[in-house]
Amino acid sequence: MNAPHTMFEKIWERHVVATRGENEALLYIDRNLVHEGSFLAFGALAKEGRKVRKPRQTFAVADHYVPTLGRERGLAGVADPEVRGMIELLERNTRTHGIAHFGIDDPRQGIVHVVGPELGLTQPGITLACGDSHTSTHGALGAFAFGIGASQLKQILATQCLWQKKPRTLRVTVDGALAAGVTAKDVILAIIARIGTAGATGYVIEYAGSAIRALTMEGRLTICNMSIEAGARAGMVAPDDTTFQYLEGRDYAPRGAEWDQALAFWRSLPTEADARFDQEVTLDGARLEPQVTWGTSPEEAAPVGARVPDPTAISDADKRAHALQAIAYMDLKPGTPLVDVRIDRAFIGTCTNGRIEDLRAAAGVLKGRKAVIPAWVSPGSTAVKRQAEAEGLDRIFREAGFEWRASGCSSCAAMNGDAVPAGMRCASTSNRNFEGRQGKGARTHLMSPAMVAAAAVTGRITDVRTLLR
Ligand code: SF4
User: Fold this and answer.
1) Ligand 1 pocket residue status of 35, Cβ below 6 Å
2) Is residue 469 predicted with pLDDT exceeding 80?
């Protein structure tokens, strides 16, 4: 009798084309997403005189470098000639190979990890690759989705297959009902704080438990997005009615008889009872508080009611050394209540928290209040921006003093110039708080959209629950 399978094992086995050694397989890749950073792979392909093997399985979107201001002028509004050149190069490469491209002017433009699920390109049971580490996001729909480098992208473009080492499996179970003001972002920050940034290295995480099942698809996308920050190859949530309702009717979702067929397959994917994971971690969701990072690693996070830790009290030598350096970089004093830390900038957006539900949560806090620091929103996609405008959220943000910008990666990595000035402290909905991530010398505090909104109106780290009351 076959041993019970995890969802990941089922998907892996369906995609193995060949094996080598004990633990490596050539996987068939169903979906390949590319952005401006794909130029190296396309260049290598051209050098070898090769064509894209299956152009209809690759989709391109301009996101990392696109400006978030002046977008009404399209490409002409891109002031930096180097950036304009990259956006144009993506357009040329995709046209040459017959690849669908959602360029700077396209109503389907947005951050690649927002656009994939939004258009129904991301589906349960598929393998999906993209040259960005936060490709783990797509696992929220029950896909095996992972980030790749330029040479791997070239291999996929040329063959639609990729050699991969089989990861081990880790189940993170979060049970219990989340309290008001506690969101998916808080759950994933608490998970990373618990297991560390290397806690899932070599693993695929499956998120399970009643708290995960109760999340919307958007919340699940936020959780899976940050799997990579725990070192995981990918993160996944088993598809269920939440997934199916989210997907139905989206542009690239199956329709009619194909939808019924797909649904039957998708329902067969969840992990079977008694399937064995290589490692298990459990968290009590009901005890979680809003989280905020104090350091320069996503694991350096704590409940908002905590104090900046004393690094000398950390027993692990490596973590102690990192914390010492982080506290110096962040210009914090051990023992300071986190809610006493002043904030200079507030940023809402990115593939972690730039979806409509995130904007609604932030607007809910901002309504009738004013930001006391410079703040801006870059919706995760042009479609999210349109939806938010239809709901009047843009008015709430503007009236609160936020800049309402166009969609792109923006201040997540500041590749498009949306940098946080050196020495400034930014409350951010993004996923990385490394030194200089949001700009040289910038200091990042990761938190949920509602928490960023709370920080914007008070000018310091704030427990959003005090404003909800
Ligand atoms: S928003 Fe940030 S993490 Fe997401 S795709 Fe863009 S640069 Fe990468």
Assistant:
1) no
2) no
134 lines ligand 1 (CB under 6 A): yes
Q: What is the pLDDT of residues 359-417, one digit of tens each?
A: 999 999 999 999 999 999 999 999 999 999 999 999 999 999 999 999 999 999 988 88
**Contact assessment for residue 452 and residue 348, using Cβ atoms and an 8 Å cutoff:** yes
Q: Where exactly are the structural domains of the chain?
A: 7-165, 168-239+266-287, 291-462
- CATH placement of domain 291-462: 3.30.499.10
Residue that is written with structure tokens 């639609």 in the block: 160
307: DSSP letter: B
Distance 23 CA to ligand 1 centre (A): 30
Q: Does ligand 1 have an atom closer than 6 angstroms to the CB of 229?
A: no
Nearest CA to ligand 1 atom 2: 412
State the fold for domain 7-165: Aconitase; domain 3 (3.30.499)
> Looking at this protein, which amino acid is placed at residue 456?
A
Integer Cα distance of 345 and 426 in angstroms: 5
**Dist CA 207 CA 177 (whole Å):** 15
Q: Are strands 291-293 and 203-208 parallel, antiparallel or unpaired?
A: unpaired
Q: Do domains 7-165 and 291-462 have the same CATH topology?
A: yes
Q: Is the CB of 355 under 6 A from ligand 1?
A: no
Query: Does ligand 1 have an atom closer than 6 angstroms to the CB of 381?
Result: no
CA of residue 316 to ligand 1 center, whole Å: 31
pLDDT digits (tens, 9 = 90+) for 162-183: 999 999 999 999 999 999 999 9
- 168-239+266-287 classified as CATH 3.40.1060.10: yes
